[in-house]
Structure formats: structure tokens, C-alpha cells
């Protein structure tokens, strides 16, 4: 359960890759050598690593349309692990190299294969693989932070801190913990001297100061709407409960309870944080891939846990809701040199008409740049971005009383300069994408009652609970054009 | 920072490529330098941590032998004890480095004193539970000590097997965050101890109990397990203790470990679970139901490493822990997890791999290949349908899984499912049609490959795909290489040419039907590529291809333009046509085509080749013709092309001249022994040996004004056959030796041409002229291109040639008739200058060794003869000068003192001193030596 080596490689556009950080674990290499015997392949020097990695990830020679080593159709890139071909095709290979790509960064590690190397063992039979994946995920969070795109100086300082982080979490190639996410160091923590009670390894100290427990429930809704008989509209909801518990004590007990309204549909695919101490079997029974028999357990969902110091995701779930919050229709008609546009959005009556924001983005691809735009909206304002060939319909905080809003008009493409392109949206294949956020609402009806949060601790904490609904990948496709998906798809 | 910067550069250069870095210095001197800096009180902790990191990451490069490893570890230990208490991070790094050095240089395996001491030292350190003695600030050191011990136990299993009681006690006492470290250390020790016990016959209750109560020394001898310890799920036969042992105590230990597992980080928890699973598997007295209490928590976890450990448990215990209901449930959770919107892509891909290798209670096959668990139905897997919105890895992974699902499904259901998948493929191809990016094209062809690998047998389906592909090709001929690649790969992987042949027929037809306007020069090169591939298929008639080519040549201006590349591409098609089995049917047409080219094509090379092909076609039987064209290597590697394939590719002439490769050494260079190699010395006429006293040094230095003066070393080698070469290579001709330098210390060496090497004749001598920029030892990579008697060309590597430091020595570059006085004057002047620190890089050093009178004379004779400036045998005093091109000097004054020989060294480049030292050490090896730095 160890990794042989670890790399952070960057590849800026137009430049060859560069090793920004690397760490080798020679004792693991020593074991690898004796485990693999004659099949042993040594880890190559850092100077050749970027080229090998970029070739496997298809990132070399961007100006050549076909390079066999990069584009061979029989080389299947469908696994979290790639093999590096050290002497070109047919030569020695280094496997399994796990990789994670974020922006210009590629994180990679080489887990130890504790199995006979020939025939190549299946990935799930190797214990080091999931540990390597966890290590890479942790590194990704540490280096990139929540925004995912750190400034170059911030990144440099985080890279410089990596050796001391690895000293703690992976000193000799065996991951002991994941690196702490960037900027997660909680305030007001006192180191915990050894007392009678054992200190968990995932909690560096104990909280000192005012006790506050905050529980934030966020639901995200995705949808693909086609307004066609041949094509079923689809939508789904997934939720997560983020907690931050500033509570005294080595192992304070907290219970958070999620409740559903009467006859609400059960929460499915519940995944919980490792700090949850026990789980009732009934919580886990509902599963989105299963037939629902209606008799499933529908709460209350109790999660007893002992919290870590930092913000963490207590649990996540998916839910099937009967209707999408906003039902849309989008019709495009091509006429000489211009397009007739008609978009209608209807807010479902069960949804609170109080948004933080609600926008519809209507892009036009594979056209020349827009000329005149004669479009009217029944509610909200219209913003036109001619250089992006984009209409942004800002619906604002509220739908009109009728809960229905319309956008209608024509868009001329008189320019001679080509606008943005997209291979999916050719001809009349086009979409409108909705972005909205509704505070204090969940579609599943799930909620965390402030009074249901129980904290077993000496000081009575302040308890804050919030909930919100946020759109994610909410598309309404033009019903007069082809849709870019096969008709059989039932789910996202 | 002024101190640190050159170090930063050095360290990053070393880390980027140790081999290149060490080409400019020796590893001993670099190691000495590192250790020296570590003892420097003025160096910052930060710099020292960087320096330690080199030893930590590359112990075997810096310590090439066990003895060097032991010495280095000792040095590091002294660095550790001299490091101030507050430098915690540095101390931890030094501990890791010592552990790495000890393990990797086999000090641990060989049970050296150092390893023993280090182990005691670490064990001493971890006694300070809860930081009573050293305080909280020392916690990281204790954590590191635990980790070091754990690594040593892993690399030498059983080491801690007699210390389990002590370790258990420590684990119980520890209540800080380090509890996890103690727990893992104890568990690993426990597992290994039991594993060792399973190798014994007739284990008694007492023996079994004694492992838990062990409180003795380190078990150096019990190490019979070796390092190649596989996790037990990998073993055909799980090692087991005999049944009936009293497991009460072990059981309670296991339960408490499991109860407290919750205190560990998820990654460590998963490691702990795996160790415990192995223990239970080895001890029949323990029941897998021990884990029952943890199962629900594990089923619900969002952590992938814990989920993975659960699957390991499932694999090991199958239905003795997991009911059929549990199995079904676990699989459903796995499918749900594989598409969970909140997991990362790599985690979801891994979950899908886990589905394809799901450890079923009743597996149908256990081949380790991908196979679908019987419980995965189309309904269950519906949520994993690929879509065009997926990233490419997810899409391909889902497609592969769904192909398996629908392949297994019942008929009606399968048809529906497969047509969904086909629709998906068509949606992908439509994106390509709309000018999708290169990435989309590549991903779509990979998807096609997966789809066809599963469903190529379904005629209707695969024909639909062919129609679509041909349609796409007619619009986007740039897809030619992708299509050819697909046809090739499908043919290789399925051992069934049918689909590929159909695709190629379709493409041929497509090209025939193209309106002439579409046959532009640019598109034509793609079409010719396709036709060339089509011509390889014996089952496809080629008449249309030939007509088309002739038609194009006659009705366009291609022949007048005389573009070599186009001509070559046309000939490449013809070449494959010549080999076509039904050539008889199109004999006349092909002859016409070749003749037309040989007459009308406005490029001599193309004309000649066309004529050559024409001659082959019209004069040889088909059998002979294909025999010549397909002439492969001995051993039937038919893919190798021979000389007659000279026109087969169109990517430049270089790749056309096919040179065969052999991976074995055919030739080698052997250093010519005997008198010192011939030194190249351009004698300078202007030096007069008579005349009044001159400043000889000025005269000497004046010579360097002439460019190229004294800049070369000539080394002589004989070029011979390597051992055990094939008889094919007994006589080789027109050999071209090519040299590559492994470092940048030398100028490029010119190729050397040798007419022939015969095995039974005297080997020819070659002179390699080296032009150093820096006179360091180096290695030459040598390769040769040569021709064998049958006229084929070969490329082969020669064994690397290493050039030692002393091989670069030249005598003082003065004309041969220069008097001894002149030489001595020059020697003395250079010495004086070096001693007074001019130039800056000058240095003086001293080397001593002991030897007898006679052997000293011998030594001087063998090693310094050509370099002696004065030889005062009687006074037992010698002056020796080595000139090292381009401008370095190493001067030696050798005197015999009472009890030792003193060698005073002066040089104008101190960077050479390590090499001088190891050179002197080498030649005086049989004597005891002492070195003093000057």
C-alpha cells in the first residue's frame, strides 16, 4: 500500500511539460524491484517524465492531426491509470501511473504493484491504487484550492510547502492521510495533550472558544429539456450537507437529522463522511439505480458523528423529484440571414418565486457575428454580447405573477466575421442554459431543522442551518433542431 | 542566499537527471560535498533539508555499495545528533534519509551493526508515549520514528515479531494523534508474526500465545519470509495456522483494533482493515463475522479507499461474511457511486473498474479478465449509458461497460440496448462531421473500436457504421489515417479481416465516385494513403484503383508538376499492387500505369523507380516478385521492409532507406593497449630550442593563440566483432560509426568510416578524436550502420565506451626536441602560479601513500613515464605534468619521505581535484593511503 514516486508536472500552451515537483520513495522502489523480479521496470529520471506523460494524455504535438503513438484507437484511455511507454511502442512500460489533470497541472503517482506482474493484474486487485487516488485527490485540493485555478505565485508557494506536507502525510511512500485542502487551517485550535481519551488522527487538536455549529444544505438540479415527443425531458437533483462544527472536546458527539415532508420521495444513494459513527441500514436502502417500490424508508435521516475541525461534507444524496423547477421551451426558426427566436420559461407552482439570481444564456454557435438584434422580453432585461454571439436574459429576482416569461424576436447575422464555434451545435441544434439560485429552498423538500441538531458538549453551541437550490447544467434544447443525444437516454 | 543559490542549482540539476549530473563529477566527491555541507553550522536548515532530500530520494545512486551506505548512515546519524533540538523538520528528514540508506543499500538485510543501532535508537524514541519526556514539539520526530520502524518491518518482515507485547503496551498508552502510528506499527508486526508462524509445522498453543507476549530483541533471524510478500488474496494457497488454537486473546485484540479504527484517517483505516482481513484469513479460529459491525459504516462511505478495502474483504471472505443480499446491495451501491455527481472523475472510473472485476460470491470465471457480474442487468446499468457530454475517459469506460451489459442481455432487451449504443456512436460521428476537434476525433475512433470489438459480428450494425464512415470520409478526407488505423487495429484484434475489408472496399468505392474537383493535391495524398492500404487486401479487386490512378495522371497536370512526394505516394500504391495475389487480372493495366509514369512523370527518381517496378512486373513470375518485395528477415518477420521497399512511405527520404535494426551488439570497440596512445600535437615550428634564455612559459602559452592548439585527445581502438554474433555478420562492409556524448563536456565526435570488418582478419584500428570542453571522464554511446554480404543495411548499437580520467592526459605540449630545461622551467612557472592562486581556480593539494622502493619505481614507470619532466631517481624526486585539453594542467611533485611517498599536487582547475584523487587512489590501491587536503 505504497506509491513509488509522485510528480507534479505543468504544461503551458505551446511549451513542453515541466516537472514542478517530484518525490521518489526508494524503499518502495526497493520492494518493487524484489516483487517484480525480472519484470522490474525502474522509474525513469525526471527529465523524461513530462514527455512520456503528455504523450499518453494526448497533449503532445497539438499541431499534428494524427500521431500514431498518441492517437492509436486501440490504446484505450478509459481507466484512471495509464502506462508510460519508456522505449516507444513495444518497449518496456511503467504501469499503473495514476493521473489527475487540473488546468495546466498534471498530478501523477505510481502505486506499488503487490501482485505477480504477469499477466497484468486488474487495477482493483491492487491495494495501492485507491490509496494513490486518495493521495492525488488530496494533493489536488491542496495545490489548487476550492477555486481550482490558483495564481502562479500562490501555486509556487504551495508547491514549496509540499515537502513538509509530505513529511506528514506520506513520509516513506505509504499514504497516512490526505494533505489538508488549501486554506483549511481552522482558527482557534489548541493542540491536544495526551489525555485519557484517545485523540483521533484526523483532528490535530481541540476547538477553543465559542461553540458554533453550522449546517448548510445545498441541492443542485440538472436538466435536459427537449420539448419533443420523441425525446423525454430529464432532470435530477443531488444534495450535500456541509458542516462546520466548532465544538469543544476531543470527541464531541453531534447528531444532524434530515427530514422530508410528508410523502416526499426518499433520499437515494446516500454517501457519508468517514466521521459518521454509525448508520442505520434503512438509510442506505434507496438507490437510484433500483426500482422504487414506494415503501422505502423516507426519514428522518439521522447522522451521528464526531466532527473534524475543518469544514466537511457530512453526506450527499440524490433525489427524484416529479417536476423540474423551471420548464422551458426554445424554438428557433431559420430565415434568410436571420434567426427567429422564441423562449418561454415557466416556473413551477411549487417553487418559491424568490431568486437570488436567474439568468438564461442563449448562445449562437457556428454563425457569423451578430448584427442587429430585435428581441423583446416579457420580464427582466436582455443583455446582448455581440462579440460572443450571446444573449443573456436576466430574469432577476422574480418571475411575473403569471409565473411565465417570454423572449421573442429576431437575431441577424450580417457580419462577415465568424463567431464562436461548437461541434455539437450545428444547424439548428442549439440550447439555452439557465443559471439560478433560490435561497431557503430544496426541491426534495429535505431540510435540517435547527432544533434537530443535537450537540453533546459542555457549552451550548449556537446552531446555524441554511438551505439553497442551485442550478447546474440546466439546458433547454431547441425543439426545432436535432438533439445531440440518443433517444434512449433515461438519465443524465 | 549567496551560499544557497549554487546549491539550489546543483540540487535541481541532480534531481532532474542524476546520470547527467554525475557525468561532471564523481559520486563519491559529490556525496562528500553533501555531507560536508550538512556539517556546516552556518548553512540554513532549509538548505540542509534540500541536501538531505537527495540522500532521501536517491540513496542507491549516492551510496553505490553497502559499505558506503553504512558509512553514510553513520555520518547522517552524527549530523542528527549535532542538529539543535529546535530543528525538528530537519531532524525528521535526516531520520528518513538514514532509514532509506539503510534499507536500500541492504544494510538492513545484511544485519549490519549500523542497522542494529538505528533500530534500537528508533525503538528508544517511540518509548516516549504522550510526549512526557520530550514535550509536544517533539511529536513529529516520534511520528517519523514510528513510520521508519514500520517501513523497516515491511522491508524485513518479522523484525518486530518478538516485540509485540511491548508494542501493544505502547499502543495502549498513547492517546495523542500519534495513536494511529502505534496502532499501524503493532498491526503490521502482528500480521507478519502470524504469517511467519504459518510457515511452521505443528504450531502449539504456547507458541501461538508467545507471539502476543513477545518482549525480546529484534528478530533478525526469523526473516525467512523475504521481501516478496504478496497480500494473501493474491495467493493460490492462503497460508493458514492449524485449527483448534486458543484465539481468545487475539480475538479481543482484533476487536479493540476494529473499534478504534474509527480514530484513524480514512486512508490508514483502509490499510488497517486490509491487515486485519489478512490476519483473520490466516487464523481459522477467528471468524470473519468480526467485521460485521463495521460493514454498514463501510457500505455508506463516500471514501474510495474504504470502499476498496470493503471489496477486498468481500473478495477474501465471500459468503462467509457477505450474504447474497449484501452482495446485491454492494453492487448496486457501486453502480450508484460510479456515476455519483459529487465524486471525482478518476474515482468514478475506478468504481467502474471495480464493477468489471467485482468479487462475486459465486464467480463463473476467475480469469482476472474484465467480466460482468451476473447481477448487473441493463436496468441496473441504465444510468451508466455514455453521452456526448461525458469527458472522454468516462464516455469510453461507460461504453465498454454497456457493451458488455448488452452483449449479455436477453434478446429483446439487448436489441434495444445495442441500438441505443449505436445511436450514441452515430451522435459522436455527427460531431466529427461538424468539424469536431482532434480530441473528439480520437475519442470517437476509440469508441468505434470498443463498439466494433463487441458487435462486429452483427452484420447490419457494422454495415451501418461502414456507410457512415464512408460518408464522412467523402467529406473529410483528413480522417484517412484514423480510418486506416481503425481497419488495422480491428483486423489485428479480431483475427477476422471481414469488417476491415468491407470498410476498405467502401472507402475505395468512395474515392472512385468522387467528383474530379474533390481530387485536389491535398486530398489526393489522403486518398493515395487509403488506396495503398486497400491494395494490401488480397480480397479486394484493384482494377478500379489502377484506372483511377491512370486517369488522374493522364487528365491532370500532375506529371508535368513532377512533385516527388505525390509520385512517391502513387508508386507506394503500385508497390502494394505488385504484391497483390490477383495481379494477373490487371497485369496489363498496371504495366500501362507504370510505363506511363516512367515516361511522363517529370521527376527522374520517380521515373526510374516506375521503370524498375515495370521491369520487375514484366520479367518476373508473381512468386518471385512477391518473394523479392516481401523479403523479410530470417525468422519470418514479414513486416520488416527490405531495400526493394525503397519507395513505400512518403515521409521523407530518410525513412525510405530501410535500415534494419538489431538489438544485439554486433561490433565493439576495444581499447588498444600497449604504449601510450598516440598524442596529437601540432608541433609549432616557431619554437627554437637554441638561443638565449627566454621566458619559456610565455613561449609555451603563446602556442595557445593558435586556434585548436592542443585541444584534442586521440584514442585508439580496434573495431572487432562482439561475442556470439550471428554468422550473417561475419563479414560487414562500409561501416559508419556514429558517436553520441552522454554529457556536454565534449564537442561532438565526427562519424568514422571503416571499409570492412571480417571476423577472421585482423581488426581495423580506429582513432577517435575527442575535443574536451571540460576534461572529465565520460562515456561514448556508439552506434554503427553497416551492410552485410546480402546487401542489407543494419543499424546496431555498440557497447558504450567509457573514457577514464587518465585517458585524457597529454604530455606537456611542446615540440619533441624541446630541452629538459625548458620543460622544467615551464613546469616550475606553472607551479608557482598555481601556488599563488593564479588563475582563480588554482589549487594545491597533497596525497600520501606508502609503498616499497621498487614498487614506486614501477609505479612511476607504468603510469608517469610519458609525463615526466624531471626524473631524479637518485634523489627520489620526480616532477610529473599532465596536460588536459583544452587548457588544464595537473602537476605532481613526488618525493619519497621517510615513511611515505608524498605527492604534492598543483592544478589550475580545482574542479579536477576529486578526479586526481581517485586516480591516484586507484593506481596506488595496493598501498595504504592517506589524503590531506591542501
UniProtKB/TrEMBL annotation, chain A:
Gene responsible for this protein: ap5m1
Name of the protein this chain belongs to: AP-5 complex subunit mu-1
Membrane topology type: Peripheral membrane protein
Pfam families: Adap_comp_sub
Tree of life domain: Eukaryota
Cellular localisation: Cytoplasm, Cytosol; Late endosome membrane; Lysosome membrane
Biological processes per GO annotation: endosomal transport; protein transport
Oligomer status and interactors: Probably part of the adaptor protein complex 5 (AP-5) a tetramer composed of AP5B1, AP5M1, AP5S1 and AP5Z1.
CDD domains referenced in this protein's UniProt entry, alphabetically: AP_MuD_MHD (cd09256)
Automatic annotation (TrEMBL), chain B:
AP-5 complex subunit beta-1 N-terminal domain span: 32-102
Residue intervals of the AP5B1 middle domain: 246-625
One GO BP annotation of this record: endosomal transport
Residue stretches making up the AP5B1 C-terminal domain: 825-923
Protein origin, superkingdom: Eukaryota
Keywords from the UniProt entry: Protein transport, Transport
The AP-5 complex subunit beta-1 beta-barrel domain, residue ranges: 731-801
Entry's Gene Ontology cellular component terms: AP-type membrane coat adaptor complex; lysosomal membrane
InterPro entries given in the database record: AP5B1, AP5B1_barrel, AP5B1_C, AP5B1_middle, AP5B1_N, ARM-type_fold
Family matches, as PANTHER family: AP-5 COMPLEX SUBUNIT BETA-1
Protein name (Swiss-Prot/TrEMBL): AP-5 complex subunit beta-1
Species whose genome carries this gene: Carassius auratus (Goldfish)
Gene that encodes the chain: LOC113055511
Amino acid at each position: 500500500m505504497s506509491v513509488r514516486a509522485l510528480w507534479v508536472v505543468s504544461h503551458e500552451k505551446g511549451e513542453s511539460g515541466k516537472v514542478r515537483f517530484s518525490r521518489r520513495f526508494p524503499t518502495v522502489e526497493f520492494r518493487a524491484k524484489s516483487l517484480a523480479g525480472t519484470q522490474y521496470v525502474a522509474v525513469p529520471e525526471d527529465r523524461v517524465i513530462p514527455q512520456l506523460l503528455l504523450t499518453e494524455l494526448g497533449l503532445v504535438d497539438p499541431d499534428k492531426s494524427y500521431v500514431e503513438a498518441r492517437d492509436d484507437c486501440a490504446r484505450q484511455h478509459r481507466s484512471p491509470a495509464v502506462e508510460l511507454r519508456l522505449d516507444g511502442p513495444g518497449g518496456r512500460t511503467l504501469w499503473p501511473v495514476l493521473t489527475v489533470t487540473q488546468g495546466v497541472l498534471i498530478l501523477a503517482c505510481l502505486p506499488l504493484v503487490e501482485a505477480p506482474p504477469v499477466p497484468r493484474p486488474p487495477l482493483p486487485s491492487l491495494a495501492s491504487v485507491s490509496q494513490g487516488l486518495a493521495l492525488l485527490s488530496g494533493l489536488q485540493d491542496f495545490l489548487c484550492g476550492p477555486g481550482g485555478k490558483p495564481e502562479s505565485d500562490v501555486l509556487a508557494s504551495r508547491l514549496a510547502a509540499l515537502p513538509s506536507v509530505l513529511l506528514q502525510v506520506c513520509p516513506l511512500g505509504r499514504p497516512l492521510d490526505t494533505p489538508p485542502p488549501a486554506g483549511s487551517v481552522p482558527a482557534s485550535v489548541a493542540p491536544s495533550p495526551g489525555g485519557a481519551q484517545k485523540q483521533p488522527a484526523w483532528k490535530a487538536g481541540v476547538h477553543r472558544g465559542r461553540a458554533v455549529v453550522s449546517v448548510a444544505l445545498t441541492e443542485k438540479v440538472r436538466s435536459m429539456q427537449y420539448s419533443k415527443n420523441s425525446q423525454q425531458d430529464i432532470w435530477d437533483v443531488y444534495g450535500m450537507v456541509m458542516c462546520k462544527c466548532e465544538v469543544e472536546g476531543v470527541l464531541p458527539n453531534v447528531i444532524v437529522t434530515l427530514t422530508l415532508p410528508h410523502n416526499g420521495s426518499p433520499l437515494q444513494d446516500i454517501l457519508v463522511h468517514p466521521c459518521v459513527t454509525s448508520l442505520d441500514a434503512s438509510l442506505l436502502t434507496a438507490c437510484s439505480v433500483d426500482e422504487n417500490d414506494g415503501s422505502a424508508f423516507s426519514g428522518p435521516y439521522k447522522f451521528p458523528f464526531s466532527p473534524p475541525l475543518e469544514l466537511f461534507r457530512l453526506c450527499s444524496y440524490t433525489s427524484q423529484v416529479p417536476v423540474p423547477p423551471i420548464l422551458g421551451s426554445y424554438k428557433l426558426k431559420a430565415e434568410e440571414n436571420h434567426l427567429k427566436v422564441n423562449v418561454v420559461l415557466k416556473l413551477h407552482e411549487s417553487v418559491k418565486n424568490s431568486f437570488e439570481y436567474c439568468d438564461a444564456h442563449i448562445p449562437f454557435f457556428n454563425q457569423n457575428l451578430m448584427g442587429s438584434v430585435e428581441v423583446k422580453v416579457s420580464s427582466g432585461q436582455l443583455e446582448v454580447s455581440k462579440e460572443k454571439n450571446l444573449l443573456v436574459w436576466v430574469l432577476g429576482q422574480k418571475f411575473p405573477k403569471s409565473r411565465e416569461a417570454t423572449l421573442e424576436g429576431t437575431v441577424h447575422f450580417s457580419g462577415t466575421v465568424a463567431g464562436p464555434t461548437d461541434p455539437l451545435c450545428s444547424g439548428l441544434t442549439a440550447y439555452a442554459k439557465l443559471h439560478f439560485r433560490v435561497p431557503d429552498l430544496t426541491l426534495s423538500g429535505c431540510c435540517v431543522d435547527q432544533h434537530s441538531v443535537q450537540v453533546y458538549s459542555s457549552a451550548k453551541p449556537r446552531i446555524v442551518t441554511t438551505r439553497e437550490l442551485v442550478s447546474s447544467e440546466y439546458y433547454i434544447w431547441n425543439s426545432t433542431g436535432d438533439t445531440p443525444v440518443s433517444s434512449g437516454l433515461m438519465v443524465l | 542566499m549567496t551560499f544557497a543559490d549554487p546549491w539550489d542549482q546543483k540540487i535541481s540539476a541532480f534531481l532532474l537527471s542524476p546520470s547527467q549530473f554525475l557525468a561532471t563529477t564523481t559520486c563519491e566527491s559529490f556525496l562528500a560535498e553533501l555531507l560536508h555541507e550538512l556539517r556546516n553550522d552556518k548553512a540554513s536548515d532549509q538548505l540542509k533539508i534540500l541536501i538531505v532530500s537527495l540522500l532521501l530520494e536517491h540513496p542507491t545512486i549516492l551510496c553505490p555499495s553497502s559499505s558506503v551506505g553504512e558509512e553514510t548512515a553513520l555520518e547522517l546519524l552524527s549530523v542528527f545528533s549535532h542538529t539543535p533540538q529546535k530543528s525538528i523538520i530537519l531532524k525528521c528528514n535526516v531520520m528518513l534519509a538514514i532509514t532509506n540508506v539503510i534499507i536500500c543499500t541492504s544494510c538492513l538485510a545484511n544485519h549490519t551493526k549500523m542497522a542494529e543501532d538505528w533500530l534500537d535508537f528508533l525503538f528508544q524514541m517511540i518509548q516516549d508515549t504522550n510526549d512526557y519526556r520530550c514535550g509536544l514539539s517533539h511529536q513529529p520526530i516520534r511520528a517519523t520514528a514510528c513510520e521508519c520502524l514500520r517501513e523497516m518491518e515491511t522491508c524485513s518482515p518479522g523484525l518486530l515479531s518478538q516485540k509485540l507485547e511491548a508494542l501493544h503496551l505502547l499502543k495502549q498508552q498513547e492517546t495523542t494523534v500519534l495513536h494511529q502510528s502505534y496502532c499501524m506499527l503493532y498491526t503490521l508486526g502482528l500480521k507478519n508474526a502470524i504469517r511467519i508462524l504459518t510457515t511452521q509445522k505443528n504450531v502449539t498453543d504456547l507458541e501461538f500465545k508467545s507471539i502476543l507476549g513477545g518482549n525480546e530483541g529484534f528478530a533478525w533471524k526469523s526473516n525467512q519470509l523475504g521481501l516478496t510478500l504478496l497480500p494473501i488474496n493474491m495467493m493460490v494457497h492462503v497460508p493458514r495456522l492449524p485449527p483448534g488454537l486458543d484465539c481468545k486473546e487475539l480475538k479481543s485484540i482484533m476487536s479493540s483494533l476494529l473499534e478504534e479504527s474509527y480514530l484513524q484517517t480514512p486512508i490508514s483505516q483502509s490499510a488497517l482493515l486490509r491487515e486485519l482481513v489478512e490476519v483473520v484469513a490466516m487464523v481459522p479460529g477467528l471468524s470473519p463475522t468480526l467485521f460485521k459491525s463495521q460493514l454498514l459504516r463501510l457500505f455508506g462511505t463516500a471514501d474510495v479507499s474504504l470502499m476498496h478495502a470493503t471489496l477486498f474483504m468481500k473478495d477474501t471472505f465471500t459468503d462467509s461474511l457477505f450474504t447474497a443480499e449484501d452482495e446485491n446491495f454492494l453492487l448496486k451501491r457501486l453502480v450508484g457511486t460510479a456515476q455519483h455527481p459529487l465524486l471525482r472523475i478518476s474515482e468514478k472510473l475506478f468504481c467502474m473498474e471495480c464493477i468489471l472485476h467485482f468479487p462475486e460470491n459465486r464467480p463463473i470465471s476467475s480469469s482476472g479478465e474484465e467480466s460482468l457480474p451476473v447481477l448487473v442487468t441493463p436496468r441496473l446499468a441504465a444510468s451508466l449509458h455514455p453521452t456526448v457530454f461525458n469527458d472522454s475517459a468516462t464516455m469510453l469506460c461507460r461504453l465498454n461497460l454497456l457493451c458488455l451489459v448488452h452483449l449479455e442481455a436477453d434478446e429483446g432487451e439487448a436489441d434495444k440496448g445495442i441500438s441505443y449504443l449505436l445511436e450514441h456512436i452515430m451522435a459522436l460521428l455527427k460531431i466529427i462531421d461538424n468539424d469536431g476537434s482532434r480530441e473528439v476525433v480520437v475519442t470517437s475512433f476509440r469508441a468505434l473500436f470498443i463498439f466494433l470489438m463487441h458487435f462486429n459480428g452483427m452484420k447490419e450494425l457494422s454495415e451501418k457504421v461502414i456507410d457512415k464512415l464512408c460518408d464522412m470520409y467523402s467529406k473529410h478526407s483528413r480522417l484517412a489515417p484514423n480510418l486506416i488505423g481503425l481497419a488495422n487495429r480491428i483486423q489485428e484484434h479480431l483475427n477476422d479481416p471481414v469488417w476491415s475489408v468491407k470498410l476498405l472496399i467502401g472507402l475505395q468505392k468512395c474515392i472512385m465516385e468522387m467528383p474530379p474537383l474533390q481530387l485536389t493535391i491535398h486530398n489526393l495524398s489522403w486518398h493515395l494513403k487509403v488506396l495503398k492500404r486497400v491494395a494490401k487486401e488480397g480480397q479486394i479487386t484493384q482494377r478500379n484503383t489502377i484506372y483511377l490512378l491512370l486517369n488522374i495522371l493522364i487528365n491532370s497536370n500532375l506529371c508535368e508538376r513532377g512533385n516527388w512526394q505525390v509520385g512517391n505516394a502513387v508508386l507506394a500504391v503500385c508497390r502494394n499492387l505488385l504484391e497483390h495475389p490477383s495481379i494477373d487480372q490487371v497485369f496489363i493495366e498496371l504495366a500501362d500505369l507504370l510505363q506511363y509514369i516512367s515516361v511522363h512523370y517529370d521527376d527522374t527518381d520517380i521515373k526510374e523507380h516506375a521503370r524498375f517496378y515495370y521491369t520487375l512486373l514484366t520479367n518476373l513470375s508473381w512468386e518471385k516478385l512477391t518473394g523479392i518485395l516481401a523479403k523479410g528477415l530470417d525468422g519470418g518477420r514479414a513486416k520488416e521492409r527490405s531495400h526493394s521497399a525503397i519507395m513505400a512511405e512518403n515521409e521523407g527520404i530518410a525513412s525510405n532507406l530501410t535500415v534494419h535494426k538489431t538489438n544485439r551488439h554486433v561490433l565493439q570497440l576495444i581499447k588498444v593497449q600497449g604504449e601510450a596512445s598516440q598524442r596529437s600535437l601540432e608541433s609549432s615550428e616557431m619554437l627554437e630550442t637554441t638561443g638565449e634564455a627566454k621566458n619559456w612559459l610565455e613561449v609555451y602559452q603563446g602556442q595557445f593563440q593558435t586556434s585548436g592548439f592542443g585541444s584534442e585527445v586521440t584514442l585508439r581502438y580496434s573495431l572487432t566483432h562482439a561475442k556470439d554474433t550471428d554468422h550473417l555478420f561475419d563479414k560487414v562492409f562500409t561501416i559508419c560509426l556514429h558517436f553520441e556524448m552522454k554529457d556536454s563536456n565534449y564537442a561532438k565526435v565526427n562519424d568514422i568510416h571503416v571499409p570492412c570488418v571480417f571476423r577472421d582478419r585482423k581488426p581495423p584500428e580506429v582513432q577517435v578524436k575527442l575535443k574536451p570542453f571540460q576534461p572529465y571522464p565520460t562515456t561514448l554511446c556508439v552506434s554503427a550502420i553497416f551492410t552485410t554480404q546480402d546487401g542489407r543495411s543494419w543499424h546496431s548499437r555498440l557497447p558504450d565506451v567509457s573514457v577514464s580520467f587518465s585517458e585524457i592526459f597529454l604530455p606537456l605540449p611542446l615540440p619533441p626536441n624541446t630541452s629538459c630545461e625548458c620543460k622544467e622551467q615551464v613546469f616550475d612557472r606553472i607551479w608557482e602560479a598555481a601556488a599563488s592562486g593564479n588563475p582563480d581556480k588554482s589549487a594545491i593539494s597533497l596525497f600520501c601513500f606508502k609503498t616499497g622502493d621498487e614498487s614506486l619505481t614501477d609505479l612511476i614507470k607504468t603510469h608517469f613515464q610519458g609525463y615526466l619532466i624531471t626524473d631524479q631517481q637518485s634523489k627520489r624526486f620526480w616532477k610529473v605534468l599532465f596536460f588536459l585539453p583544452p587548457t588544464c594542467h595537473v602537476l605532481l611533485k613526488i618525493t619519497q619521505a621517510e615513511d611515505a611517498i608524498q605527492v604534492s599536487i598543483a592544478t589550475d582547475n580545482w574542479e579536477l581535484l576529486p578526479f586526481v584523487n581517485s586516480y591516484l587512489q586507484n593506481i596506488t590501491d595496493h598501498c595504504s593511503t592517506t589524503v590531506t587536503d591542501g
